[in-house]
């Protein structure tokens, strides 16, 4: 039911007019009900717009929006894909990046026309107008939404400069033009309920199987606290070894570590959107292209809360409370990918584990913050790197797999791949 402002205004007016004679309890209840419904509507609207802003704020969110606006085989989608391809390739050409030619949104397609001499700066206005004019035709398909996430996660590369597409979408003219697409996605319920909070009762672990799975991290082989101590010792030693990077010319700084995750041997898990597989099955940063996996529900006996990262400011807050200096180690990669040079920190996971049983990165926080230089203080910044959307790392040993494991595998569907339960009809 849609509550008009005029309904509430009328009830309030009648209430004021009737103050000389005490209004009935039923009248007061109706007024309260209308105001509560309107408040919920406004809260939901605010949440939708907040998510829309997150989509536009970060490079991963903008990449997903671009995929959604170029999906399909319509002439408009093909034309926009072509213009994006030309502009992003031109950016990489002008920077002398290693050139790899793929069309946006369709890995197997070739560009519809040869490169032109038009600079990306000249074509950006045309692309911005196409984004501003874009409207979704009908409902958002779940598989397309999922494919957009897969595309943006797989294109995350925080050990080098942002690629041509990420650079293009970061232009203020284009990011502003994308705001309308983001509002459409949010208002249509796209990604609603996908990886918002880590409910301990509904967490799923992904285990890789088959080819290329040998050597992947197996959780629970060592106590969590031991892993965290070893991790902190290793990070400290790496930082001491790379302190010389702080005074070196950037051209002499070698790229080292780039990820800011807790140690990989901890249990990690994902929620499971209704009717879908966990995002950790196909939305994997720097993955190895695994084709087989099992998923299994985890049972976690929490004694402490989970730290929820719902937006970049939450990550900054975590770094402020539990800072670990990684300036020498991360300077090469994080300066390269963000364009910022200076002091770098990441969360000290051993210290975080004293107060929390786990840490969860929501989908919204990933899309708005992953790969960005997030300010922690006037001269300090940090980067969310190596994380997957909706991922929770657990710092407690009170974790155990329960129930039967489900086998999943990748099937080829014409121009793209999809994960399906093993034995499921294609």
Provide mean pLDDT, rounded: 84
Low-confidence stretches: 1-10, 12-20, 37-45, 100-114
What's the total helix number? 14
**Series of secondary-structure elements, N-terminal to C-terminal:** HHHHHHHHHEHEEEHEHEHEHEEEEE
> How large is the radius of gyration?
24 Å
Could you characterize the architecture of this molecule?
With 426 residues, this protein is of the alpha+beta class. It has 14 helices and 12 strands. It has helices at 5-17, 25-57, 59-70, 75-94, 120-133, 142-154, 164-169, 172-177, 179-187, 224-241, 312-321, 327-338, 349-355, 363-369, and strands at 203-209, 268-269, 292-300, 306-309, 323-325, 343-347, 358-361, 374-377, 380-382, 391-394, 399-413, 416-421. The chain has a 4-stranded antiparallel beta sheet, with no helix packed on it. It has a 4-stranded mixed beta sheet with strand order 2-10-7-4. A 4-stranded mixed beta sheet has the order 5-6-9-8, with helices on both faces. α2 crosses α3 (59-70) and α3 packs across α14. The radius of gyration is 24 Å and the shape is globular. Residues 1-10, 12-20, 37-45 and 100-114 have low confidence and may be disordered.
Keywords:
alpha+beta; four-stranded antiparallel β-sheet; 426 residues; single chain; four-stranded mixed β-sheet
Secondary structure layout plus pairing:
Layout: H1 5-17, H2 25-57, H3 59-70, H4 75-94, H5 120-133, H6 142-154, H7 164-169, H8 172-177, H9 179-187, E1 203-209, H10 224-241, E2 268-269, E3 292-300, E4 306-309, H11 312-321, E5 323-325, H12 327-338, E6 343-347, H13 349-355, E7 358-361, H14 363-369, E8 374-377, E9 380-382, E10 391-394, E11 399-413, E12 416-421
Helix pairs in contact: 1-2, 2-3, 2-9, 2-14, 3-6, 3-14, 4-5
